[in-house]
Amino acid sequence: MNLHEIIQLEADRLEKEVRELEMRLEKAPKGSLRCHKNGKNFRWYFIDEEDHRVKEKNAKRKYISKKTGRPLAEKLARKAYDKRKLVGCRKELFALNRYLNSSNNAAMPERQYLSENSGFRELLISDMPLMNKELEEWRVADYPGNPFYPEALQVSASDGTLVRSKSESLIASGLAYNGIPYRYECELRLEGQFFYPDFTIRHPTTGKVFIWEHFGMVDQEEYLERTLKKLRIYLRNGYIPTVNLILTFETRQVPLGYDTVFRVIRDYFM
Predict the structure, then answer these.
(1) Is the pTM of this model over 0.70?
(2) What 3 state SS string does the chain have?
(3) What is the pLDDT of residues 119-129, one digit of tens each?
(4) Fold of 129-269
(5) Which of 115, 228, 232, 253 has a CA between 20 and 30 Å from the CA of residue 29?
(6) pLDDT digits (tens, 9 = 90+) for 151-160
């Protein structure tokens, strides 16, 4: 997965979000909400969207009681929020599509010279500024991986690594794109148990070892409990968030984006 494909994933996500916002706005009640400061509190007013003065201060308005009208006020507030968010999503989607339409899908063709099947690889790798020979040898060496559910390894990253989700593919592709050596689901033994962190990473300059765990279903209670249990074990064994343990999260409503992945990579490794 190259940068073009990563941005395509983000564009696809935005398209889905735009559709969801449009559908929600279609079901929203008519009218709009105005909030006016009244001392320390706000008064709510319903504005008829058919009033030609709707954008003016003297547009016809109707008071919404906080005791009986709160459900309507909440729906109108969400409608206003969704309309503003839809504008932002459309602008971002437009910018991404402009890039996708103008970019070359075969970006960074020089990477083929560093592929495992290239005869140029061994002649070039020792001179690569982002990955010295020792780290490259560590990256390509065999290691004990996760033996469980190999059939779930269905998503390919840019370097050919098979992972279990699009989010993990974003991370793996981002690491590979920036020449940062990593191992996917490398075995780690702690307190007599075997763990398989999503990514075990070596800093390309210092060689320092990091673990990057991405938790993709933290809005599910059972998954969250397992996550907290794992984090407690990591902490007891010297894996400290922001020091040598990188944590990212997502929910169904808030997926992992390429911007987050590249920001993390930049902050920790570049």
Answers:
(1) no
(2) CCHHHHHHHHHHHHHHHHHHHHHHHHHCCCCEEEEEEECCEEEEEEECCCCCCCCCCCCCEEEECCCCCHHHHHHHHHHHHHHHHHHHHHHHHHHHHHHHHHCCCCCCHHHHHHCCCCCCHHHHHHHCCCCCHHHHHHHHCCCCECCCCHHHCCEECCCCCEECCHHHHHHHHHHHHCCCCEEECECEEECCEEECCCEEEECCCCCCEEEEEEECCCCCHHHHHHHHHHHHHHHHCCCCECCCEEEEECCCCCCCCHHHHHHHHHHHHC
(3) 787 777 666 55
(4) Trna Endonuclease; Chain: A, domain 1 (3.40.1350)
(5) 253
(6) 999 998 888 8
